[in-house]
Design brief:
two-stranded parallel sheet
C-alpha cells in the first residue's frame, strides 16, 4: 500500500481521471491531503472512497494531530 496524497499532484490526477469518465475508487489515510484538496474533490462521485484510520496498535505512521483530525472531519462533513 501507499498513500496517494503524499504526491502533491494526486488531486490533479483524480480530477483528470474523473473528467475522462473513469469510475474512481480511492483508498487513503488522508495523510498529505489539505483543505483545498477536499474542496476540489467535493463534487466527484466516487464508486468507493475508503479511509484507513489509525489502528489501536499504532502500526501506521499517521500523526493524530489537530490538522489530521480537521481533514478527517471535513472529508465526511
Amino acid at each position: 500500500m501507499f498513500e496517494p496524497w503524499l504526491n502533491p499532484q494526486c488531486t490533479d490526477m483524480v480530477l483528470y481521471a474523473h473528467n475522462r469518465g473513469h469510475k474512481l475508487r480511492v483508498y487513503t489515510t488522508l495523510v498529505g491531503m489539505g483543505q483545498s484538496d477536499i474542496e476540489r474533490l467535493a463534487e466527484i462521485h466516487f464508486v468507493h472512497f475508503s479511509v484507513h484510520i489509525p489502528s489501536g496498535g499504532r502500526n501506521e505512521r499517521i500523526g493524530l494531530n489537530e490538522s489530521y483530525l480537521y481533514i478527517l472531519t471535513e472529508m465526511f462533513h
